[in-house]
Design a protein that fits this description.
The chain is mainly alpha-helical and 131 residues long. The protein has helices spanning 7-25, 37-47, 49-63, 65-91, 95-124. It is 78% helix and 0% strand. Helix 4 (65-91) packs antiparallel against helix 5. The longest helix has 30 residues, at 95-124.
Length: 131
């Protein structure tokens, strides 16, 4: 049975773009009145490096869904404990609040990775047809 629904093709791409935009918002903390404009721009670009890396992974996933899906899901899983320790250590939030931050930042990439893998499997079985 062929599914002509493009949901499994476009959903991971859209979610990944939105998640990268969300991560990019954290670069806005580079703008501080005590810094010169060049220092602010330099700090802003440095803070956008994770977003650039995620964009590169999205490009890989766009072309090779299985490899990109594995990379994106792995990034989400591997980054989770580090983000938890960093957030909990710096801010001394409760464990629940720290887990909420981890879920907001890494969970979308885990979901996107799984969706890319599902899309690859459906296309391989010829069940998903992108027109």
């Amino acid at each position: 049975m062929k599914m002509s629904i493009k949901l499994f093709h476009w959903l991971p791409r859209i979610i990944c773009i939105l998640a990268i935009l969300f991560v990019s918002l954290f670069a806005a903390d580079a703008f501080a009145p005590r810094l010169t404009i060049w220092q602010q721009l330099g700090a802003f670009i440095m803070n956008l490096i994770p977003s650039f890396v995620l964009i590169a992974f999205l490009i890989v996933a766009w072309k090779w869904e299985l490899i990109g899906g594995i990379i994106l899901a792995s990034i989400g899983l591997i980054a989770s404990p580090f983000i938890f320790m960093l957030n909990h250590g710096r801010n001394h939030f409760s464990i629940g609040a720290s887990l909420g931050v981890v879920l907001a930042i890494t969970f979308p990439f885990i979901v996107v990775g799984i969706l890319f893998i599902i899309s690859h499997i459906l296309k391989k079985k010829n069940l998903l047809k992108v027109e």
